[in-house]
Amino acid sequence: MNPIGAAIVALVIGIAIGALLTWAALRMRRSEQTPTFDVSEPVVPFGVAEVLGVLPSAGVVVGPHDEVLEATAAARTLGLVRGSRITLPELLQLVRTVRREGDVRTVDLQISRGARIASTYLAARVAPLDESLILVLADDHTAARRIEETRRDFVANISHELKTPIGAISLLAEAVEDAADDSAAVRKFASRMGIESARLTDLVSQIIDLSRLQADDPLANPDVVNIDEVLSDAVDRRRMDAERNQITLTVAGVEGTRVLGSARQLGVAVGNLVENAIVYSDPGARVVVAAHVQARSDDDYVEITVSDNGIGIPPAELDRIFERFYRVDYARSRANGGTGLGLAIVKHIAAIHGGDVSVWSQVGQGSTFTIKIPAHLHEAAPTLPEPMTAASPQPPPDQLTHEPQGISQ
Fold this sequence. Notes:
Heat Shock Protein 90, 14 strands
């Protein structure tokens, strides 16, 4: 190659190398000036998910952009989390406040689930887990809240109910003192004092019964209860009241039914229903107490029905009749010494026997209350049936001896 050609080639190579070096220098300078971002996903610290899984509280771990990184099943069940977001605005605002200020906060929350559904009450505690993660722990206080409301209502109601007979006795005592010279007036006021004293005694007795029921579990050490005896005893105790009100009492249904539980408690429940049927029936009415059996795959259910053709219950009252101290006809109940606790006691006895109580009623046609409880007899040791003699034949266990609810006026 001649000297001129070699010089030209060297010049081109030098220009190319210079351009490459210049481009590399500019690229390096730009990379130094351009900020870098950490786009890695936030990570929940090791062991946090396992700890949340064993805590009784509902737990949520929230990331730097309000996204839910970890949530327990309880948190989703309570409605704190949906998808990857917190659903409650108050809780989300508290999370942002804790992230900004770095201190622990607590808040009481009420979750409304609709007009006809009871609200859920939560106590939430929000704390920073690290520089970017927020931990939310929530405890469901709904049951405790309802128990406290029930206790508060019960104390208010019982104070009012006790005040009425006590006030009446006090006034009657003053009247007796003022009418000391009038023997007829003294006898009249003394009679009224006896009525109010009896009402007060009944009220205190039912309060004691209710308190005793709440501390007693009839299925812990159950007895085999003969329902025939329960119905017969309950009717016999109210027989005089029924005759005084010209009401016919009848025991019918399937004979030989048995359940596991407490004969005393079931007797109280049936007795309360019979007493109510008498109180809310007019002279000439009929009250039928009966037992029936419903077979199920796992157990037999025994239904105890108390039916009357009395005044009936308005539809608007049916949802409230099992509330403590609630009376459908206040004047009639007070006139007959009713305390308003009878049906509440029936409901509780049915519940602690593993069953429930329901009511059918129509105004002017009467009512039928049904206590339905599982027999639980599969849990008891089998017993050999006694041989039947020709002198005392018994109907088969499933043979009805009456029409269950066909009561006509």
